[in-house]
Amino acid sequence: MSTASKVTKVSILGTESIHCGDSLVPYIVSTTLSQLPSSTYVLVTDSNIAALFLDAVTDEFNLKIKESGSKSRFFVHIIPPGEGTKSREGKADVEDFLLDHSCTRDTVLLALGGGVIGDLVGFVAATFMRGVRFVQIPTTLLAMVDSAIGGKTAIDTPHGKNLLGAFWQPSFVFVDTAFLRTLPKREIANGLAEVVKTAAISSEEDFALLEANAETLLSPPSEPSSSSPLLTLITASIATKARIVTGDPHEKTGLRNLVNYGHTIGHAIEGVLTPHLLHGECVSIGMILEAEIARFRGCLTQPSLGRLSRCLSSLGLPISVNDPRITKLPEEVTGNLTVDNLLHIMRIDKKNSGPEKKIVLLSRIGETFEQKATAIPDEIIRKVLAHAVRVTVPTSLSDEAKKHITMSTPGSKSISNRALVLAALGKGTCRLKNLLHSDDTQVMMAALSDLNGAKFSWEDNGLTLVVEGGGGSLTTPSSDKEIYLGNAGTAARFLTTVCTLAKPSTAGATTTITGNARMRQRPIAPLVSALESSGSSIAYLGSPGCLPLKIAPGFRGGKIELDAKISSQYVSSILLCAPYAQHPVELHLVGDQVISQSYIDMTVGIMKTFGVDVQRKVDPSTGKLLDVYIIPREEGYINPPEYTIESDASSATYPLAIAALSGSTITLSSIGSGSLQGDALFATQVLEPMGCKVVQTASSTTVTGPPLGQLRARGEIDMEQMTDAFLTACVVAAVATRPAPEDEPANGGDGKIRTRIRGIANQRVKECNRIQAMIDQLAKFGVETKELEDGLEVYGKPYQALTEGVSVKCYDDHRVAMAFSCLAVLVKGTILEEKRCVEKTWPNWWDDLENKIGIQVEGVEIPHATHTESKLNSTSSAANANASASASTIVVPPVPGQSIILIGMRGSGKTYIGNLAARALSYRFLDADVLFEATHGSLPTFVREHGWPAFRAAEEEILGDVLQSRGTGYVISLGGGIVESEGAREKLKEYVAEGGKVVYLERDVDEIVKYLGEETARPAYGESVRDVCLRRIPWYEACSSHRFKNDDDVTLFFGNLVGRKLTLPDPLSHAKRSYFISLTYPDITAAKPHIERLIAGVDAVELRVDLLHPSGQPVQGPNVPSTTYVADQLGQLRLMTSLPIIFTVRTQAQGGSFPDNQADALFELLKLGLRLRCEFVDVEVTANPEHIKYIVSNKKSTKIVASWHDWSGKMAWNGGQVKEKYRLAASFGDIIKIVGKANTVDDNFSLRQFVKSVSKSPLSKPIIAINMGVHGQLSRILNETLSPVSHPLQPVKAAPGQLSFAEIQKALFLLGQLPARRFFLFGTPIAHSMSPTLHNSGFLELGLPHVYGLFETPTVNADIRSLIKSEDFGGASVTIPHKLEIMPLLDILSPHAKLIGAVNTIIPSVRDDGSRILVGDNTDWLAIFNCVQARLVDGITPQTTALIIGAGGTSRAALYALHHLSLKTIYIFNRTKSKAEEVAQAFPNEYNIVVLDSLTAFPGAPPSVVVSTVPAVSTTIIPGTKGSLYLPASILSANRGVVVDMAYKPAVTPLIALAQQISAWETVQGVELLIEQGYYQFESWTGRKAPRGLMRETVLTAYRSS
Fold first, then answer.
1. Cβ atoms of residues 1269 and 1297 within 8 Å
2. For labelling alongside 575, which of 121, 465, 585, 1231 has CA 20 to 30 A away?
3. Are residues 1287 and 1298 both part of a single domain?
4. Considering the domain boundaries, does residue 882 fall inside one?
């Protein structure tokens, strides 16, 4: 490199063609004109850049050309912004401009803009006239350091990004940092990701400069500067890339692959998250993940990876797919971040091939493992990418016991955080060795940097942290800077006091600290109260007693009293900062017994090392130590030159536990009896008495486990001094089956082997309620526990008897994850969810488990709780090639999903409705008031003794705990006044924002006043009930996602609530066309009688808000419906359907009825649509830009349909106006809708051409493009995404030319777009089957050209084999006797069919590669499930039992259904008992199937559900009938229940007749089951919602007549 007159020149390929500086426009122009003489200069830019910089550049060019007297021509061509321009069409546009202006081979092109402009113009230059010169003038940081350097040029195609291009070196690259002054911080960070990349692969010096200047780099100097850190780093980054490009200009040697560090995985993530995340943000995540691969391979140390993480985070870049910027994205986006999908995207990356991917591995900061990318197998990448891991049990546990492993553990989190605070506050420089590199310490360092308390740098390749202490001099951060602490509890407690030491940076300045949702629930009030008593000013910004806090400068000191029974970290926080108080501190610990004394002793010991000797008072009369500490205030801390942090004793418990559990020997070389940490006692005080051999020195610990199954239980362990280790003790105790030592307290007289763990009450307020977590997760393994006031009991069980295949929820708690990973060594198939939570204390735990301990782990995907079954190897239905896109398997009724919260006034019916809803959903009901009284006593007494504020604070704390610990499977009723607390309101709003459902139960105010005037069980309000109601109603509305009125149908409302699932159509996949029906009723309740037929076939429902009117009469003229009426109508619609709702308010100019001049009223309605969580909201592009901005910012999970309507008939689909409106819609909409008017049929072909052109980009969004009017009907037929349809039953059509769903299907068939398929019933005898009637009525109603017929054969013969392979085979039902015999002919069985062992449905499907397969499924169980659930009045309790009669294939489906209904005991009876036993043995033990000898007695409660799967002719209710199974009345001895008979002839079977004699028993006839299972078959074949009511009525009519 050489420098001249403030311009630094970088050489590439032997030429100094890259010029870097600041404010270079005059220099750029003069250099271009003098060095690249030409007859024509053409500058290409986009409209965004033109508005900012074009005038200055153009003026300078024109001036210089004029001054020189040159005859050169200078042209400017402005193109649309965005990636969509980088296409074949965009390239042709530029080329046509050049040709139109008679440009020749001496033309010089100038690319002024970001990467899109540079790539496009470069490719034009490479091909125009066989190659012309061009100049890169990048205006974004990303383009400056990446795309502008190296000569790569390209455009995108529908098949992917950058697939057409050339290597074409620019004559010059001018890097002018002045262009960056208009760039948002996010865009600067986006480019800095590439700067981090080049520093990471080539220069630790540059990397250190990045670490030291994060805040400065994000804010470019406002004045010209040629020596700013930003310009220095940009130049260095360019030089690195230039050097690599020079060494490998055409990617032949592999050297150039080095600049792809972070890109292999980053590009895959970008392929999913574009446009929500920027390129650099995706590469940032990719760099971390690829560094983790290097760490797993042993190339890179955790300290280096920690440095990389901190550096990227300090620049505001995401480092994980769990970043809030990603997790808040809609599920249809994040749902594609599966490991399989990411690997698939990597596979088609041109750099990769086969089952290996090319990844650049770091060996240290500034150096790579190889001078090229390394081939990495997919299984390693999968291990890093997956959100969960499965631990592999060693094939021979006896061999495992022979192992002797020596290893060390990471540095102590507790000591690391204390040492960081002390070194930062101290005077001088301290080198910290063995610092824990984790999330917690990263948070602490970042916070201390924000407080300007110290300077940090690294030595020894990141193994040593150099801290230049600030001597206690701290200042508050900038006013807009919050210190975010994530889930770091230690940092939160310590920094609360540290922040009081900060001097104000400006008058009145304060410091705000906050954390994640769990951190904002964890208590901190005792510490705050103690500091406030010492003169500090601290305000709660959310819930009282929790973060966030606003902390003013000032720590007076003096005598401080502190309640230390909750956390010793409160004590340590004050101790650490006390030397810098204004007066000497005398700290008195008050209240009950101090918790975790050993951690306080640790703090005092480390403070002494840093020069402050804390004195603990002694009672002179007894010599007993008192809980009073005297902290001197002299010089403060004096930093030792070096301080080595001992290994983490809590983390050490995990490898030691593995030794204990597996019988192996493990030595830890870094923790022993000399430790400062209480958890170091774990080996000697927990494992040794349990039968382990323990050898411990001052600095090492060796544990040898007993033979497998020989661990002893413990009568009682007091773990108060090692609380964090109790989780490890629990998993060891889970398999401790030998009695406790004789010298320990008796376990009790019940004969059970148990271990009692005490002294751990504070573990309820850690990262989660750890005691509850251990109870819940151990239960999954079949381990019994009992909760105690300050601990729990664990009942040991032989390890061979533990349940296999358990998926452990880790609650984002590192201790939970690592503890259960130890147990997983013994239990096959154990999965640990949320694997990344270990990064808090042992980031490379999974690596060390495999590489050091030798226990293999594999990455696995965890499906969502309410996920439908898998898509069977990425298949999609082919039964209806273009009109259908069913998953290739049947949708499963949802298992209990996210809990539902009920809010509303007392007296609104929350308890009653909540119980009904829980019963309908098979959820559990929880009344928060009952939970409050169980915790705090009666409500009136509490309020009387403590006051309303204390009650609200306690109520809010319970809310936080409930949301954390009961987040799934509950209907939770909250107290009416929960909304009085701002913190509680924020919690509820946050729950809604994250996809939770909060239902506001509305009730008339007068009714509530009347009810509460008589009610005395709750404390009086102290004001009128009416005033309370009116004050709270706006809060209830603001905090809720849905509303429920007392006269609504509970089962329907809540069933729709949990059943609704939004799937945004894929704009690139035309396997399924999607539709919505546009409802035009002024009163939506008028649609109720017809709703099943109205919505049959469609994917969504449009609520035309502008057509709503309370009169129920069609709207005539302008109409502004009230928000109250609209909210009620929306609620009514939710009751009718679970389909997604499109909320549309169309103005008169757009063909609707809403007045054009009422923009603010329209805006209020749109906000209502957002607040009530409509899945789609339609927003016209001509709306007020501020309104659009608000809607986009507050849409949460709602999708925006950005629409434009032109009724004039003058709109040209190939004109510029449409393109401009399209770009505007694409800038904020998730779906684009453009509607014109057709004058002739030819207008539809212009429309199709437009859609084809805009859909070519891989980044294009779904588009609805239609023409109105009769001439435009063809466009409605051919539109593929969310086509609006009407229905003959509607009062009017929503728009002229609108067609019904059935009309469109018929037209598609005639156009050859919808092939006719044949469907069959296989079996015998089937002549009288109702299945053809059922399915053909559905086909006819939906306009589908398919036919369902009978195919009767005694066996599965060659005819069936041939038929299912035919091209027009659409699917089949299978009945006896073929349900088992058909299975070998199928390619795949659904999980249901596999376990049931019988198939009743065949679904042809097509894989991604185009190959056709046959999928076998079973819908019988779904029919049984739904029919029983709908009729079981008393719901299901742990005591509810069921009876199945018969042992054939259908009995298996019944067993499967009843188990999914959460029935804990299922009886089965068959006349041939061995067959019943055979069926029972085919199912897992957890089904708890009891085979009966007879039907006259039951070993437990009598059944509440009875299912007969035998022919009706084989049964009787008349005793003594020969040859028939007698059904005694005793089988129906339960108070009430449900009887299901699978036989549908005769209509009233003997079992049905028996049940009809008992009024309290509900009955389900066989024909009902036939119809119910048929719905699922129809929907799986067609991908369309079945017209259920019509199909049912048609079948029943035919059934009755027969």
1. yes
2. 465
3. yes
4. no
Please identify, among 1289, 1310, 1331, the residue that sits at the C-terminal boundary of a domain.
1310
Contact 546, 521 (CB under 8 A): yes
Domain residue limits at 937: 900-1058
- Residue 361 and residue 368: Cα distance in Å, rounded? 6
Catalytic residue among 16, 187, 251, 869: 251
Marked catalytic residue, from 357, 358, 1221, 1233 = 1233
**Mean pLDDT score across all residues of the chain:** 88
Percent of the chain scoring above 70 in pLDDT: 93
Residues 719 and 770 in one domain: yes
- On whether 182 is known to bind a ligand per the annotation, the reply is yes
1221 is catalytic: no
Q: Are residues 1391 and 1500 in the same domain?
A: no
Which among 1279, 1310, 1341 is the end of a domain?
Answer: 1310
Q: What is the pLDDT of residues 1434-1489, one digit of tens each?
A: 667 778 899 999 998 889 999 999 988 878 899 999 999 999 999 998 888 778 89
Residue 351, pLDDT > 70, answer no
Q: Is 276 annotated as a binding residue?
A: no
Q: Which residues does residue 46 pair with via DSSP β-bridges, in sequence order?
A: 79
Does 1517 lie in the same domain as 1497?
A: yes
Residues 666 and 687 in one domain: yes
- CATH number of the domain residue 474 falls in: 3.65.10.10
Q: Tell me, yes or no, whether 1292 and 1194 share the same domain.
A: yes
**pLDDT tens digit string along 1070-1080?**
457 899 999 99
Q: Which long-range contacts (CB under 8 A, 24 or more apart) does 601-606 make?
A: 601/676, 602/414, 602/415, 602/418, 602/572, 602/676, 602/677, 603/418, 603/571, 603/572, 603/575, 603/576, 604/575, 604/629, 605/676, 606/415, 606/418, 606/419, 606/422, 606/676
Q: How many CB atoms lie within 10 A of CB 68?
A: 12
Q: Is residue 1330 part of a domain?
A: yes
pLDDT class for 914, splitting at 50, 70, 90? Answer: confident
- Any known ligand binding at 452? no
pLDDT at 33 over 80: yes
| The total number of structural domains that make up the chain | 8
Among 499, 837, 1029, 1427, which one carries the catalytic annotation?
Answer: 837
Q: What is the pLDDT of residue 1067?
A: 28
Is 811 found in the same domain as 688?
yes
Tokens (6 digits) for 363? 């060996």
140 is known to lie in a ligand binding site:
yes
* pTM, two decimal places: 0.63
Catalytic residue, chosen from 427, 1205, 1261, 1585, is 1205
For the chain, helix (H) and strand (E) counts, in that order, are 55, 68
| AA identity, residue 65 | I
CATH code of the domain covering residue 199: 1.20.1090.10
The predicted pLDDT at position 437 comes to 81
On whether the CB atoms of residues 1126 and 1108 are closer than 8 A, the answer is yes
Reply yes or no on whether 1233 is catalytic: yes
Task: State the pLDDT at residue 895.
Answer: 45
pLDDT, residue 882, reads: 32
Helix (H) or strand (E) holding 17: strand 15-21
Same domain as 429, residue 479: yes
Cα angle, residue 857 at apex, residues 851 and 862 outer, rounded to 5° = 150
Tokens standing for residue 938: 């009666």
| Residue ranges with strand state E in 1459-1584 | 1465-1469, 1489-1491, 1505-1508, 1515-1516, 1525-1526, 1537-1541, 1561-1564
* pLDDT confidence bin for 629, thresholds 50/70/90: very high
CB 657 within 8 A of CB 822: yes
More confident of the two residues 65 and 907: 65
| CATH number for the domain harbouring residue 1360 | 3.40.50.10860
Closest to 1282 (Cα-Cα) out of 1230, 1346, 1212, 1338: 1230
Would you say 907 is a known binding-site residue?
Answer: yes
Residue 837 catalytic? yes
Residue 870 lies in a domain: no
- pLDDT (tens digit, 9 = 90+) per residue, 741-767? 776 764 555 668 999 999 998 888 777
**Phi and psi (nearest 5°) for 500?**
-70, -20
In a domain, 881, yes or no: no
Q: Is 990 a catalytic residue?
A: no
